């Protein structure tokens, strides 16, 4: 099984399934679960065709993840042997040949701005607006050891390393493809890269600060629970006087989770789209084995 998302990788491995980040053929049948990114979906179909080597490629996915447009595009290139629709999803299959070589996912490559990204990773066309807003508002007083949770291909981390008081940055990213880009974007003795789930990574009370632009969906449907888990993880990782700085879409309900996890909260900056939030003094309830601070 091929899996580049660390939480899923770990889950399948714990079940005793052999997992890799780069599957190799040949195989008689290759199954593709459609990702959200159209470019990545096409790349996976091309990879599946190459691995199947004359066998069968099966593609399935939800309508909200673009299964219908992919089916139409595949049908333009090859004959579809069969398809089944049920609920909000669809599955189809075709005989593997050489029709999708032009869909192959390109290697990480530099943008005009110089940043190295790859189709299929978050914000592959350049820095997202939320991260740019966060960089503008970063407190210049951050110092010591910290982490960029969900650091992607390294945009925030490079700016963190430019702060004069920063001595070490842990970039934590669950998408192996994004982390591969970060490896090429960043070079600093004060940096450590971690392919890990940011909600479970690291030792409690080990960091002076955490900076993050947390994801808020695992599918196309927004889910604030993921960002809330990032907040709780930050509180767990921070020392008693540690600081969290984060950016979030204005509508996301993070303030209650912040209040439950930190003593001090303030909005540093923001506009109608984003809010830059700073929280300090994590509550002891987020540290294993300690009573809640009153």
Automatic annotation (TrEMBL):
It holds the Pfam family MTS. Signal peptide: none annotated. Residues 116-278 form the Methyltransferase small domain. The keyword Coiled coil does not apply. Keywords: Methyltransferase, S-adenosyl-L-methionine, Transferase. This is MFS transporter. It comes from Marivita lacus.
């Amino acid at each position: 099984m091929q899996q580049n998302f660390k939480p899923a990788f770990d889950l399948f491995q714990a079940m005793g399934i052999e997992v890799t980040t780069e599957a190799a053929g040949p195989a008689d049948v290759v199954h593709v679960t459609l990702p959200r990114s159209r470019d990545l979906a096409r790349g996976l179909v091309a990879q599946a065709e190459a691995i199947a080597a004359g066998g069968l490629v099966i593609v399935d996915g939800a309508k909200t993840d673009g299964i219908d447009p992919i089916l139409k595009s595949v049908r333009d290139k090859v004959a579809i042997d069969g398809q089944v629709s049920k609920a909000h999803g669809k599955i189809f299959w075709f005989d593997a040949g050489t029709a999708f070589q032009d869909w192959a996912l390109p290697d990480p490559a530099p943008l005009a701005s110089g940043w190295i990204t790859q189709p299929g990773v978050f914000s592959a066309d350049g820095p997202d607006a939320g991260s740019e807003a966060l960089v503008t508002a970063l407190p210049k007083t951050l110092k010591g050891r910290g982490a960029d949770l969900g650091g992607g291909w390294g945009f925030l981390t490079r700016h963190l390393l430019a702060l004069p008081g920063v001595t070490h940055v842990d970039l934590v990213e669950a998408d192996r493809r994004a982390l591969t880009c970060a490896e090429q974007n960043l070079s600093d003795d004060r940096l450590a890269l971690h392919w890990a789930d940011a909600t479970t990574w690291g030792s409690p009370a080990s960091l002076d600060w955490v900076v993050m632009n947390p994801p808020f969906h695992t599918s196309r449907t927004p889910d604030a629970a993921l960002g809330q888990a990032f907040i709780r993880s930050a509180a767990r990782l921070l020392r008693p006087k540690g600081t969290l700085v984060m950016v979030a879409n204005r509508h996301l309900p993070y303030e209650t989770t912040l209040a439950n996890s930190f003593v001090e909260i303030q909005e540093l900056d923001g506009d109608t789209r984003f809010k830059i939030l700073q929280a300090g003094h994590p509550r002891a309830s987020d540290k294993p084995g300690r009573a809640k601070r009153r």
